[in-house]
Amino acid sequence: MVPVKLPRWRSALIIAFSTAVVSLALLALTASLFSHDPSLHDEPMSDADWIVTGATLVVQAIALVLRVRWPVASMLLIAVLPLGLASVQPSSAFTLTVLPIIVSVFLTGLSNTVSRLSIWALFTAVIVASGQWVNSLGAGEENMIASAFGALGQAAIVVLLPLMPAVFIASQRALSAAQRETVNALTRERDAQIGEALARERSTMARELHDIAAHHLSGISLMAGAIARQIGTDPEVARDGALQIREQSRAILDDLRRLVGLLRDDDDQGLKTLATIADLVTAVRSSGAEVELQIQAGEGTDPGRRVGPLAQLAGYRMVQESLTNALRHAPGSSCTVVIDGADPEALHLTVCNTARDSTGEAQTTRSGETHTSGSGLGILGMVERAALIGGTCEAGPDENGGWVVQMTIPRDPDRGIS
Q: Which residues of 336-349 are buried (b: 16+ CB within 10 A; e: fewer)?
């Protein structure tokens, strides 16, 4: 059994004491009125009548404490006690016993639902009506039928009068509790959504950093290896390569600044789109790689029509990552980038590179370390980007020993055709 907290007992004791004080005060007032005006009652009350009535009121008030553990049983007990008083010592002051009953019904209604309390409220009303009827008959009432109807009416008032506001207050409390629970549930759901959004943002940032660093640093590594071989034989070419490394370094810094700017809610100037793929191809060519760009679309038609900024960024990153992988894993091979915008339903991007030639097969850095395979995060990032925009991305070897990456980006039907 769960122990009851002390504040509930303290509250019950205060209510019981207050009820006893008010009941005894009304009893004393009634006794004073009866003594000054004998016409207020049919038969005079003896001292024993007053004492027994007062004792009943005190016991009823004490029984209010029991509601902390047994609210319904306490309510029924408080209603039954006056029935015993009416059977033993009927009097004109019997009506005062309804005060503890009213308090008990009200308090019980606050802590119980209507469905659970209705049957017990009916039992309480029957007990109160029986007590009133027995007391009226014991006090000398001769018309039993009229006395019964009067007792029923008084019981209905004693039970329904406090029960209705108690039920209303209890329903308001339940409604407030349900609203609080709904708000808490919505808050938890919002926190979960925020956490999920943050996780997605972290994943996006990781892909962006991977794409930026892998692309530029791979080019810098290749150019640095070429400079190391040419610095003794062709210093002028080596100098040009060093300048290209400088440009690549600036480019990676610019991309990092753009990424940080996006995180700071700055404007989106410099955002990568399909139109900037040509600049990407030019930059890769400057590192010495052989790259061809093919754009297939109707005359005067933009291949990126009805393709949103996020989808264009995903396409750009796919081309960037594919070229980076070709430079890293197949140095010396030729690459072809195809932007196919002829399909009215989707945009198709293809990046393919031939197999490594004999010069690239065993190409090493100055330190003598051969190029190693990647972690696979680049391809995974491309697939995730495609899925994010509702497209597909596939990568694998072709029949000639090269490597092909294909991305399909669905067009947005809600965007106007440019």
A: bbbbbbeeeebbbb
